[in-house]
C-alpha cells in the first residue's frame, strides 16, 4: 500500500479524555506505525510556560485552589496541532468542549494549506467546531467518521439545509456502530460503512498478564470498576450506588473519572469506595486488569461502548445496561456472550445480576474469557486496515489531487 499524507480533525478538546479523542490519537499512532504521514488538528490548550518567579508561582497555586477546576494542558504527541482552548457546550446529555470563531477558521485553513494531505479524515462533521469548519474550508478527498447516536434533533433539522453544501463534499463515510450508522441514514440521508472503534488491546493484555503474575485478584475482596465523568447523569453512577446498597458481599468500588465524589457513597454497607479521578491510559489498564467486574450503568447516548472493549481486553467480567450499542459489543445473543446485561436505569435488576456474579466466580471467569476473545475483533491492527481501505477508495493512485483550502 502506498504511503499517504493524512490529516485528521477532532472536534472535541484534548484537554479532556473522551472516546472520540482517544480513538483519533490511537488511529493516528497506528497509521504512523505503518509509515504514513499523519497530522491531527483539534482543540487543545497550550502548556503554561514554567516560571521561576515566586509571585507567579503563588498566584497560579491560589488560582488552582480557589477558581473553578480547569484541566491542565495535557501532554500530547508531536503530531497533534493544538487548536486553542475550548468552551463547554451541553449536547446529547453530555458536555462537549469545542472551538469556533474567526481564529479557529484561520487555524483550520493553515492546517489544510501546510499539510498537503492526500486525504482529510474529519470526525463528527456535524459538530460546530474544527470539524465543521474544516469541512467548509476544505476541497478534495474527504472522509467523515460518525460517532454519535442521538435522538431526533430539531436544531439539526433546521440547520441541515445550510450544512448540505459542506456535507456533500464528503466522499466516504464511516460509522463506528450500527446505531450511529442508522442515525446518519435517518437524519442526514447518508449511508456510511460500518467500521467499529479500535482498541489498543496490547496495552490491556500486558496489564492483565502482570495482574495474573502477581495474583492480584486472589488476595482481596472482589473489585468493581466504574468509569465516567461524575457530573454526567447519563453515565449512571447513581444507579450503581443504589444497587450497591443491596449487595451483601464485601466489595471494593474503584471510580475513575473527573468530578466531585458523591457523599451518598460514604455509607454503603458492604462497599469500600476509592475515587481515583482522572487517570492515564496505562493506569486505567492496570485498574481494569486488577478488577473482577466492570459495570457500565449508562442511561443512554452511547453509540458504541469503547470502555466495554477495554475492560474485556483487560480480563474483566462486563456487566452493562441493555442499551442497543452495549448489547452488540457484548454479543449478547451468542451462546457464550462477552458481557451480561441488566435493565437500563434499574438498580434492583443491577443488584440481582451483580450479586449473581459475585456469588459465582465460574460465571465471572466465563464472561471474562469470552470478553478477551471478543476484544481481539476491535484491535487497531484490524480496524486501521479497514480505515485505510476507505482512504484508498477515494484517493487518486497517481496523487494528482490533494486536499486544499477552498478559494475565498
UniProtKB/TrEMBL annotation:
<keyword id="KW-0808">Transferase</keyword>
<dbReference type="Pfam" id="PF13692">
    <property type="entry name" value="Glyco_trans_1_4"/>
</dbReference>
<feature type="domain" description="Glycosyltransferase subfamily 4-like N-terminal">
    <location>
        <begin position="18"/>
        <end position="202"/>
    </location>
</feature>
<dbReference type="GO" id="GO:1901137">
    <property type="term" value="P:carbohydrate derivative biosynthetic process"/>
</dbReference>
<dbReference type="InterPro" id="IPR050194">
    <property type="entry name" value="Glycosyltransferase_grp1"/>
</dbReference>
<dbReference type="InterPro" id="IPR028098">
    <property type="entry name" value="Glyco_trans_4-like_N"/>
</dbReference>
<dbReference type="GO" id="GO:0016757">
    <property type="term" value="F:glycosyltransferase activity"/>
</dbReference>
<dbReference type="GO" id="GO:1903509">
    <property type="term" value="P:liposaccharide metabolic process"/>
</dbReference>
<dbReference type="Pfam" id="PF13439">
    <property type="entry name" value="Glyco_transf_4"/>
</dbReference>
<keyword id="KW-0328">Glycosyltransferase</keyword>
<protein>
    <submittedName>
        <fullName>Phosphatidylinositol alpha-mannosyltransferase</fullName>
    </submittedName>
</protein>
Amino acid at each position: 500500500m502506498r504511503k499517504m499524507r493524512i490529516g485528521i480533525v477532532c472536534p472535541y478538546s484534548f484537554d479532556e479524555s473522551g472516546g472520540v479523542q482517544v480513538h483519533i490519537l490511537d488511529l493516528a499512532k497506528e497509521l504512523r506505525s505503518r509509515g504514513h504521514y499523519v497530522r491531527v488538528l483539534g482543540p487543545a490548550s497550550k502548556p503554561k510556560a514554567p516560571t521561576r518567579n515566586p509571585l507567579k508561582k503563588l498566584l497560579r497555586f491560589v488560582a488552582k485552589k480557589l477558581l473553578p477546576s480547569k484541566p491542565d494542558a495535557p501532554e500530547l504527541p508531536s503530531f497533534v496541532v493544538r487548536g486553542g482552548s475550548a468552551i463547554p457546550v451541553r449536547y446529547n446529555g453530555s458536555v462537549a468542549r469545542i472551538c469556533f470563531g474567526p481564529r479557529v477558521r484561520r487555524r483550520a485553513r493553515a492546517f489544510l494549506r501546510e499539510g498537503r494531505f492526500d486525504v482529510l479524515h474529519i470526525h463528527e462533521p456535524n459538530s460546530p467546531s474544527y470539524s465543521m469548519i474544516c469541512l467548509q474550508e476544505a476541497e478534495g478527498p474527504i472522509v467523515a467518521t460518525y460517532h454519535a447516536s442521538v435522538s431526533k434533533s430539531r436544531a439539526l433539522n433546521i440547520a441541515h439545509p445550510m450544512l448540505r453544501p459542506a456535507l456533500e463534499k464528503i466522499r466516504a463515510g464511516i460509522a463506528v456502530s450500527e446505531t450511529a450508522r442508522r442515525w446518519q441514514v435517518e437524519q442526514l440521508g447518508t449511508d456510511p460503512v460500518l467500521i467499529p472503534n479500535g482498541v489498543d488491546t496490547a496495552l490491556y493484555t500486558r496489564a492483565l498478564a502482570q495482574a495474573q503474575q502477581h495474583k492480584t485478584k486472589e488476595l482481596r475482596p472482589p473489585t468493581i470498576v466504574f468509569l465516567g465523568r461524575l457530573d454526567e447523569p447519563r453515565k449512571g453512577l447513581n444507579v450503581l450506588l443504589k444497587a450497591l446498597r443491596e449487595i451483601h458481599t464485601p466489595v471494593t468500588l474503584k471510580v475513575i473519572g473527573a468530578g466531585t465524589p458523591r457523599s451518598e457513597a460514604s455509607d454503603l454497607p458492604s462497599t469500600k469506595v476509592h475515587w481515583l479521578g482522572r487517570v492515564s491510559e496505562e493506569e486505567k489498564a492496570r485498574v481494569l486488569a486488577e478488577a473482577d467486574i466492570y459495570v457500565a450503568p449508562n442511561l443512554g447516548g452511547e453509540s458504541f461502548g469503547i470502555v466495554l472493549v477495554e475492560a474485556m481486553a483487560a480480563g474483566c467480567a462486563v456487566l452493562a445496561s441493555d442499551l442497543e450499542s452495549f448489547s452488540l459489543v457484548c454479543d449478547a445473543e451468542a451462546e457464550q456472550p462477552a458481557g451480561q446485561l441488566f435493565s437500563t436505569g434499574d438498580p434492583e435488576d443491577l443488584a440481582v445480576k451483580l450479586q449473581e456474579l459475585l456469588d459465582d466466580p465460574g460465571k465471572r471467569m466465563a464472561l471474562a474469557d469470552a470478553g478477551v476473545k471478543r476484544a481481539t475483533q476491535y484491535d487497531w491492527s484490524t480496524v486501521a486496515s479497514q480505515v485505510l481501505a476507505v482512504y484508498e477508495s477515494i484517493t487518486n493512485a497517481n496523487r494528482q489531487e490533494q486536499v486544499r483550502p477552498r478559494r475565498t
